Each structure stands twice: as C-alpha cells, then as structure tokens.
Amino acid sequence: MSGASWSERLFGGLKRTSERLGENLAGLTGKARLDDDDLDRIEEALITADLGPAMAARIRERLAARRDAVAGGTEELRKIVADEIAAVLRPVAEPLEVDAFPRPQVILVIGVNGSGKTTTIAKLAHLFQEQDYGVMLVAGDTFRAAAIGQLKVWAERLGVPIMAGPEGGDAAGIVFDAVKQATATGIDVLIVDTAGRLQNKRELMDELAKIKRVLGRLNPAAPHDVVLVLDATTGQNALSQIDVFREVAGVTGLVMTKLDGTARGGVLVAAAERHGLPIHAIGIGETIDDLRPFDADEIAGIIAGNIR
C-alpha cells in the first residue's frame, strides 16, 4: 500500500475496527425504529472494537434517543456514531506546540519497550524540523545499548545533534549535559528518550523523578511535556499503561502508534473518553513521515465507516 494516501492507509488500518459495527448497522436496513435488541448489538460491536464500555454506552444512549434515525438508512446511523465519537475526540486533539521560553522546550518521551518509542522520537524530531525548529535528541534509555544505537542512527539520518552516554550510564546526568549544551547552542526542542521498564515500577519512578529534579534545577518549567507512546495493537492494555505512567511519570499527552496494523484502533477513543489527555499525534507506519497530528473528525468518520 506504499502508494496509498494517509487517509487510505488509516482507513485500511482501522477497517476491522469499523467492520463489525458496519455489519450490525447494515443488518438494520428496512426497519422503521431501533429496538432494544438492535441497540444491544450495536453496543456490543462498539465494545468489541475496543471503544470501551463507557463510550459504547454513550453512543447507545444517543441512538436510543433517535430510534427513528434508522429510517434514514445506515448512513444516518453512521453519522450519529461519528458525531458522538468526534465529540469525545475533538477536545483532546492537540498538536505539540513549541512555546517554551527560555528555550529549549524539553519533551520527555516515555513508554514500554516495543511501543515504537524510539522511532516516534525520530518522527517527532522530523515534524519539528519541518517547522524550522532546531532539534536535539537525548539517549536517556541507558539500560539498552540497542536503544542508544538506534537513536544515534536516527540522529545521523535527520542531521541533528544527539547527547548519549554509555550503556548503564546515569540518565539524569546525560539529560543535564544535554540541556546545558542545547541552551548554549540555541536548540529549540530537546527530545529525551527514557527507559521503558515497567517490570520494576519503583526503579522507573525513581529514575524519572531524578531526571525531573535535574531538569527543574536548570529550568523550573522543564520538562514541558511528558509524552506517552502507546502501541494501538495492545488494545485495552494501552489503557492500563496510561494509568501506570500517569502515576509514575505525570503524563501530559499521548502519541498512538501502529494504527495501521490493528483491529483495535477504537482504544484511541476509549483513552480519550476515560483519561481526557491530549492526543498529540498518531502513527501508521515505519517511515519518517508516518506520524501526523491527530485529526478527530477523520478518525471518528473512519471508525464509523465513512471514508472522507
């Protein structure tokens, strides 16, 4: 699908999320009113698509108030579903803005190993470069040599400076040096990779707290953003990760990756409904351009089965 547009690829990824709902809506053709069994089936389809029970109940309630909408065919029902989803998503669609003064804006990027964290950092750096900001990367995940190596490769490809230390080095010390260098060289955005070990919550919490203390000594406003990267293919597990990382790291916003490879894209809606955290961007592939600011209406339409 390399020649496909962003919307087509996103639709392809979320297709299975919308298909179950579509099948249920299509089965209602010819009815004059929705009955309780119809509403039950639609609600179940929404839960199966990982939109979560609260969101499914909310949409069911809206449809129950418009039982005669079925007479307008599946398009009318899809529109009601899309409107309800969009109403939840619009308030959380917030791109990452660079507005810190003094510079640099410090963005801590957190998430479990395998969530696409390191690649997302590179994609965010690329988005900022396109806006003419000076970017620097920090290899703060010192527990994995592979993570340090991967980030160095990305920095070279992007042509941006990187601050890295040895495997097992002191992450807070590396971040401290990075902020000093970024300040001295006029860097706008400092993006910090962090360890993603959730097996030992206390250890991770201590390390992140230490990084935040060090940052606070240099600039009381830093870190300006704590961005959690979530893998959409993990479905409801992504929601429990938000719970843990909010407690551990004080998450300020989300990036959802791998939306092109999942039947569970509805988790994006469940996260918005349950947590209300800003969703800065979504990712649908491995290339450097495969991360875009989050468009609430586009996602709502696709989940409801409408191609824009």
UniProtKB/TrEMBL annotation:
AAA+ ATPase domain sequence ranges: 103-254
Pfam families named among the record's database cross-references: SRP54 (PF00448), SRP54_N (PF02881)
Residues bound to GTP: 111-118, 193-197, 257-260
Gene Ontology molecular functions: GTP binding; GTPase activity; signal recognition particle binding
Protein's UniProt keywords contain Cell membrane: yes
Top-level taxon in the UniProt lineage: Bacteria
Reaction equation(s) it catalyzes: GTP + H2O = GDP + phosphate + H(+)
Keywords: Cell membrane, Cytoplasm, GTP-binding, Hydrolase, Membrane, Nucleotide-binding, Receptor
Membrane topology qualifier: Peripheral membrane protein
Intracellular or extracellular location(s): Cell inner membrane; Cell membrane; Cytoplasm
Domain Signal recognition particle SRP54 helical bundle: from-to ranges: 10-89
An annotated GO BP: SRP-dependent cotranslational protein targeting to membrane
Annotated EC: 3.6.5.4
Gene Ontology terms: cellular component: cytoplasm; plasma membrane
Record-annotated SRP54-type proteins GTP-binding domain positions: 104-305
HAMAP family linked to this entry: FtsY (MF_00920)
Entry similarity comment: Belongs to the GTP-binding SRP family. FtsY subfamily.
Entry function: Involved in targeting and insertion of nascent membrane proteins into the cytoplasmic membrane. Acts as a receptor for the complex formed by the signal recognition particle (SRP) and the ribosome-nascent chain (RNC). Interaction with SRP-RNC leads to the transfer of the RNC complex to the Sec translocase for insertion into the membrane, the hydrolysis of GTP by both Ffh and FtsY, and the dissociation of the SRP-FtsY complex into the individual components.
Quaternary organization: Part of the signal recognition particle protein translocation system, which is composed of SRP and FtsY. SRP is a ribonucleoprotein composed of Ffh and a 4.5S RNA molecule.
Protein name per its UniProtKB record: Signal recognition particle receptor FtsY
Organism name: Sphingopyxis panaciterrulae
